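Action item from last meeting closed. Structure (427 res):
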């Protein structure tokens, strides 16, 4: 048990220092194996790699096709078309709402949050400039739309954090819709009003818009694809996945094909976009697979039984122990999918057994696993946090407090509300 805790600490500290989890996870797994009495070489080449390869085998097509989908939406201008149209409808005076909603629509449609950050930033900069809003809250505004409820709460979202639990609980992407919708409202509405309050607070302190060093001007006259046509690929992914019950691989593939058909005039750029998307997916799948491999080693040492007993022994609803386990591991790895992967690889069968024995719907366990992955994952070392701060030109000192409120504090409150709903049998 000490070895498991030590391994997690090493994983968290090294990840926080910016070291890649691709090679940090095997080191942490080695610590767990040595202190747990496993043969070190066998633990790496057999136990660790079986978890690594098993996850990659199951999820690589989804990671790759999702990354290509996002890149095609970005390169064809379809993502920008959606964002620009929504911002015009909502209006410059409500710049925070416009940026937040634009991010939410794109991520709910299946576009990677990393792609959304790049696609939205020039538009967000223009809106914040016109509304004279401090750039300090821009990262939190983007995070609210891209890193929270569309990633974990809204039923039917094709984001990976909503799909991973399916294999463990025999559910689908629409699992526990009431819990998901209520949680999404808490995150979205709560986060928005917090940001409005922060905007007023900053303005009262004399902090308004300041041009970044690398001034970017949004090209108003840029010719973009039709808004309604741009929405079609997003709708195809969501509707085929949830209404027609297509496999997620087929649903995203259909979205990709539609993007290509709607942009035949840009055919020369297709190969580069597809290559870039496919190449970008490699790091994402390997990072998560590395985390799952660590979880597989943890599962095979004797101390895991004690850890399981401690987690399962948390008083009250078993959903609470699942929320604690996923949140802590997401925080340790700095990854929502990675933390969830470790937790469910190690404990998923236990929670499914509890669901069967207690009458709590497996859908509730699915939704809580997904919701809990989006909390402590957004600690300062999280890759998405680092990306949004870099792109917006802000620092942790400038903006991290606001990111933490909208992407950690409020989502944890939303998760607690979802557990309360499950406790009274509302899923």
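Sequence:
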């Amino acid at each position: 048990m000490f070895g498991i805790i030590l391994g997690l600490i090493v994983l968290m500290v090294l990840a926080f220092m910016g070291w890649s989890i691709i090679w940090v996870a095997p080191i942490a797994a080695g610590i767990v194996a040595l202190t747990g009495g496993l043969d070190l070489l066998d633990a790496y080449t057999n136990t660790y790699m079986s978890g690594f390869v098993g996850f990659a085998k199951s999820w690589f097509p989804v990671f790759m096709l999702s990354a290509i989908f996002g890149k095609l939406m970005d390169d064809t201008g379809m993502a920008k078309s959606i964002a620009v149209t929504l911002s015009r409808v909502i209006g410059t005076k409500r710049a925070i709402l416009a940026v937040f909603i634009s991010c939410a629509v794109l991520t709910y449609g299946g576009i990677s949050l990393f792609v959304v950050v790049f696609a939205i930033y020039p538009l967000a900069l223009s809106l914040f400039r016109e509304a004279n809003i401090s750039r300090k809250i821009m990262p939190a505004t983007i995070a609210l739309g891209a890193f929270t409820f569309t990633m974990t709460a809204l039923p039917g979202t094709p984001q990976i954090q909503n799909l991973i639990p399916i294999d463990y609980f025999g559910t689908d992407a629409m699992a526990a819709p009431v819990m998901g919708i209520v949680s999404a409202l808490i995150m979205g509405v709560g986060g928005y009003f917090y940001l409005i309050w922060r905007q007023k607070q900053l303005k009262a302190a004399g902090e308004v818009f300041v041009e970044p060093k690398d001034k970017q001007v949004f090209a108003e006259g840029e010719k973009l694809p039709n808004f309604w046509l741009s929405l079609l690929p997003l709708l195809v992914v969501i509707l085929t996945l949830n209404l027609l019950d297509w496999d997620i691989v087929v649903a995203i593939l259909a979205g990709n094909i539609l993007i290509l058909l709607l942009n035949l005039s840009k055919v020369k750029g297709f190969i580069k976009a597809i290559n870039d998307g496919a190449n970008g997916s490699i790091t994402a799948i390997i990072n998560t697979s590395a985390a799952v491999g660590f979880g597989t080693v943890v599962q095979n040492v004797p101390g895991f039984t004690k850890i399981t007993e401690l987690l399962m022994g948390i008083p009250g609803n078993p959903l609470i122990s699942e929320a604690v386990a996923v949140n802590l591991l997401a925080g340790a790895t700095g990854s929502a999918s990675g933390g969830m992967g470790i937790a469910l690889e190690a404990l998923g069968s236990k929670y499914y057994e509890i669901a069967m024995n207690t009458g709590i719907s497996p859908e509730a366990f699915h939704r809580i696993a997904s919701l809990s992955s989006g909390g402590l994952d957004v600690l300062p070392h999280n890759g998405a946090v680092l990306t949004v701060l870099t792109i917006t030109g802000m620092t942790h000192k400038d903006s991290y407090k606001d990111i933490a409120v909208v992407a950690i504090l409020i989502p944890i409150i939303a998760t607690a509300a979802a557990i309360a709903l499950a406790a009274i049998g509302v899923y």
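Note appended to the action item: The mean pLDDT is 89.
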